[in-house]
Amino acid sequence: MVAVRSLRGLDSSKVAETLFREAGLKEARPPCSVLEFTDGVGGHLRARLYEASAEAPHVLYFPAEFDTDETLHLLGSGFQSINFSLIAFEYKGTGNSQGDFSFEGVFEEAEYFFKAVKRWMDRQNRKGDLVIMGRSFGSAVALDLALKKQNDVLCLVIESGFDSGRTFLERSGVDASLIPEGEIFGNRGKMALFKKPVLFIHSPRDVIQSLPEVEWLVAESRSKATQFQIAPSGTRQELATQVGELYLEVVQQWVNLRRGVRPPRKRRPIFSQS
């Protein structure tokens, strides 16, 4: 496993308040339901469920620091429309999960989330493949969990990811004096150890992480099936609001290819002869 410096130094209310200043998770709305579970020490955690069929892919999603009820609903209902279940984790302090957010604790909480989803799937006899996905800050949590559970997951989807944790935090507005020295999340080292395919989705106009910078992370992927998709959008926040047919089609086809499901062949037009 990749050795990463302790993240306790980031557990300042100023860091969390700055990073999650745009988060707006208040109340889930239909067709969403709620999965509740504990963090192993008595803390009460929640995830939002956008359910599709039992045999379809189940996407364990770690939100961005700017995700809102609207962006989660857009992604969740969009995935339902292509028969993918989305199970979106709610970080402590950003939604209805109890407790204060902790950079040190969120990676362990992600493992409790994974176990809770597996128990829920077993109870409902759900056999669909597991896909892990993260957006922006959530991509670091998703990558960490995917590496730990790579024997149990089909693939990983990273939207608006980042290579350097320090660069990501500073450009997100966090005071540089509050960021510990050294490697923060260890994304590059973790990606080098992850053997399953990865789908990267990134905006060419992303001001937090440019295309050349995120390519350092892409280059570490071990799988020949990894893809880097450039999405026509503005900032990463704007990309999160543009989950339309093209976005969903790209994710659906790529994940289905990992499952061995090929898109239906388009019928050739039949022309009458004169």
Describe the secondary structure blueprint for this structure.
Layout (H helix, E strand, L loop, with lengths): L12 H7 L13 E6 L5 E7 L7 E5 L6 H13 L3 E6 L12 H21 L6 E6 L1 H12 L6 E5 L5 H7 L15 H7 L4 E5 L8 H8 L8 E4 L5 H5 L4 H15 L15
Parallel strand pairs: 3-4, 3-5, 5-6, 6-7, 7-8
Antiparallel strand pairs: 1-2, 2-4
Helix pairs in contact: 3-4, 4-6
Question: How would you portray this structure in words?
Answer:
Helix 7 links the parallel strand 7 and strand 8. By secondary structure, the chain is of the alpha/beta class. The radius of gyration is 19 Å and the shape is globular. It has an eight-stranded mixed sheet, sandwiched between helices. 35% of the residues lie in helices and 16% in strands. It has nine helices and eight strands. The chain starts with 12 loop residues before the first helix and ends in a 15-residue tail after the last helix.
Oligomeric state of shown chains: single chain
Radius of gyration: 19 Å
| Strand tally | 8
What class would the helix/strand composition place it in? Answer: alpha/beta
Largest sheet: 8 strands, mixed
For the largest sheet, list the strands in their spatial order: 1-2-4-3-5-6-7-8
